[in-house]
């Protein structure tokens, strides 16, 4: 993944991942605050029950659940803006 100029695509990926994690954390903290409860509004999607692959000796469980909130979207936008200025 080569980017234009001297900016690194991995740095952008890490910034976006950081924005998602911090935004989700802020959204989780703001659930009980009445003025900020809109930050925790979002949608959750993924596998409700995990898929289990039993190979006798090895058991592998596949599962994925993603929750996108307003706070995580704001975190991604802020992380992209910060990346642009670095």
Beta-strand residue percentage: 15-25%
User: Count of helical segments?
Assistant: 2
Percent helix range: 40-55%
What separation lies between the terminal Cα atoms? 19 Å
Overall mean confidence score, pLDDT: 89
How are the strands of the largest sheet arranged? Answer: 1-4
SSE class: alpha+beta
Largest sheet, strands/sense/barrel: 2 strands, antiparallel
Q: pLDDT below 50 for ≥5 consecutive residues: which ranges? A: none
State Rg. 18 Å
SSE ordering: HEEEEH
The tally of domains stands at 1
Label the overall shape: flat
Q: Tell me the number of strands.
A: 4
List keywords for this structure.
single chain, 86 residues, alpha+beta, two-stranded antiparallel sheet, 4 strands, 43% helix, flat, membrane, DUF4321 domain-containing protein
Question: Your description of this structure?
Answer:
The protein has helices at 9-29, 70-85; strands at residues 42-46, 51-54, 59-62, 65-69. It has 86 residues and is of the alpha+beta class. The chain has one domain. Strands 1-4 form a two-stranded antiparallel sheet. A two-stranded antiparallel ribbon has the order 2-3. The protein is flat, with a radius of gyration of 18 Å. The model has no long low-confidence stretch (mean pLDDT 89). This is DUF4321 domain-containing protein.
Gist of the model:
The protein has 86 residues and is α+β, with helices and mostly antiparallel strands.
Fold blueprint:
Elements: H1 9-29, E1 42-46, E2 51-54, E3 59-62, E4 65-69, H2 70-85
Antiparallel strand pairs: 1-4, 2-3
Helix pairs in contact: 1-2
């Amino acid at each position: 993944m080569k980017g234009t100029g001297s900016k690194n695509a991995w740095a952008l990926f890490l910034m976006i991942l950081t924005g998602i994690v911090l935004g989700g954390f802020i959204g989780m903290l703001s659930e009980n605050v009445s003025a900020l409860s809109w930050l925790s509004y979002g949608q959750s999607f993924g596998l409700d029950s995990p898929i289990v692959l039993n190979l006798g000796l090895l058991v592998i469980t596949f599962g994925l659940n993603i929750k996108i909130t307003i706070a995580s979207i704001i975190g991604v936008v802020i992380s992209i803006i910060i990346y642009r200025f670095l």
